[in-house]
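Changelog-adjacent note: as of this version, every example in the card shows the full chain rather than a window. The one below runs 125 residues end to end.
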Amino acid sequence: QVRLVESGGGSVQPGGSLTLSCVASGYTYARFCMGWFRQAPGKEREAVATINYDGRTDYQNSVKGRFTISQDTSRKNLYLQMNSLEPDDTAIYYCTADRLPVCNTGLRDEYFANWGEGTQVTVSS
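Full-length structure tokens:
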């Protein structure tokens, strides 16, 4: 059973930075699409960034140039470096992973079967 555990959330002022981490375990098949989604109060969960097993990345337009998704060589540790944070980035951030034929931020959350419990990110002055 795939298990995903996020960490690194917190409260920062606008313009600040945070790095989210996700540790994946419980599987041996490494050719997953992994990603970060977020859900703000009253809004649907949306894809923020994805990274495929071959290293290809994709970002939601609103975070391009500010966020960077990466993973280590084992492909079981996923990161999201978030810079120049804005109040609109406030949300619960979720780590997700699944074996999918495509991997990009156009995917809806229903395509992913494995999720972490989420970590809160609050951007406020």
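Structural remarks: The CA atoms of residues 30 and 75 lie 7 Å apart.
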